[in-house]
Write the structure tokens for this entry.
Amino acid sequence: LILSLLYTIKFEPIMSFVKREDLIKDGDMVIVRRENLLKPLLIERDKRYQLTAGYFNHNDIIGKPFGCRMFSHNKKCTMTILAPTPELWTLALPHRTQILYSTDISLVCLMLELSPGCVIVESGTGSGSLTHALARAVGDSGHVHTHEFHAQRCETAAKEFETHGISENVTVYHKNVCADGFAVEGKANAVFLDLPSPWEAIPHAVTAFHSDGGRICSFSPCIEQVQKASLSLQEEGFEEIQTFESIETPYQLSRKRVWQPFVGTESHKKFRSDQRVLDNQSDSLEWVNAFVKGGPRKDGVGHTGYLTFATLPAKELIRKRKAPSQDGEGPSGSNSAANAQQSSNEKKQKSSEIVEESASVTGDEKSSVTDQQVESDPQNIALATDEK
């Protein structure tokens, strides 16, 4: 009996934000759109989605394709069932903290050079808006290690990731990275920081990077935070430090109609005059067809935050820059430091010889000997004077 039950049970995968399915199944998370309003909805068998004008049975939604339009039981209201994506989730998610929107998220994924198979470390998780986009960017072969210091938000985010089908490549840690560091060391290809004081977490981020280095991004609303974070990045050996501000400017199209003075012959004027009388307009103006006018919207989104990016070179190169090797190679691999030290020692030796020779003679002889030494090697004038 048990074996027969196992054979009859079908284990269907949950619709994921990364993997796309054609039909809606029981347990899927969908995005409901109604009158330009987006809301997440978990499909569960034998349940209802209640609205003011009517309700929708979940059993009627199961089996329908994504993008379909559903009517309520009394046919008084409709809604569209959309497949979940990171962009739609950003607009529909329940806000637990301030989130990043698609304009900043797209720049983060681009500048961090994320691709399938990458390992990225994030702090903090917040409402999970960016985490969904990172999970899609790294794919099934990559992994996202996200950290959150608030216990309740950490637990809620972990449950959401499991419901959304991305828990396999997203791991949530309850940890304060500014004090205790990251839970991952030597694996990350990229690091993202969304913290009030990112400069405290930057030294810990160096240990999280892979030996080949990688990219880092810090999101800060205030420019003072950017200044402190940039100084910390420079102290830790990061290069190519850049700060961006993404401001989205949507344009709104409108149709306009204008009047202009009539220009034409008398016959055209009589014909046009008849049309103007019908339109109850003056004889000196004619009606021009409508045209489309575009301009920036005044209610657009303004400043959201500053994105600071930097590159961490290979750790071996960082080690050489901070502590030059015994063979005297500098940051660029040359022997400039050793050559400079050797040249300085030779100059000091020559100057000491001049002083000894000049001390062995007196009077005019001392003067002549010193003059000869100076004329033979003018570069030793300052050195000989200092040694005297």
Notes: The longest helix spans residues 336-359. Residues 1-13, 269-287, 325-340, 358-385 have pLDDT under 50 and may be disordered. The first strand starts at residue 29 and ends at 34.
